[in-house]
Write a structure and sequence with these properties.
With about 110 residues, the chain is an alpha/beta fold. It has six helices and three strands, in the order H-E-H-H-E-H-H-E-H. Helix content is about 50%, strand content about 15%.
Length: about 110
């Protein structure tokens, strides 16, 4: 939070993001509020530059190998789709590499 006002990497990071063709949001499924985390990030992008909020995005729910995440995976994916306003939402486990190749294939389509 606060990147749009220059906190942390702030402006440097957001100027870099402006040059990207697609944004990949990796959402921590073990977070207390994964949907809230996603919304905070998207709000920061839009506050800095309205076009960043409209840039193509792929949203990934990570840590799907963790039982607590696996149990609520379908619900979280649906809520992320609603929050994102599109269906480019998928699940992965970086630890086990589950669905990582599929993610790479999806990202390839944008570059």
């Amino acid at each position: 939070e606060g990147a749009a006002q220059g906190t942390g990497l702030g402006f440097s990071f957001l100027r870099h993001v402006q040059r990207c063709k697609v944004l990949l949001h990796v959402v921590d499924g073990t977070s207390e509020d994964p949907i809230g985390d996603f919304n905070v990030l998207n709000n920061e992008l839009a506050m800095f530059d309205d076009m960043l909020g409209k840039k193509a995005q792929v949203v990934v729910l990570n840590k799907c190998d963790v039982s607590e995440v696996r149990e609520k995976q379908d619900e979280l994916v649906e809520k992320l789709r609603e929050a994102a306003g599109h269906s480019r939402v998928m699940t992965i486990s970086a630890a086990t590499t589950q669905n990582v190749q599929e993610l790479m294939g999806r990202l390839k389509k944008f570059v």
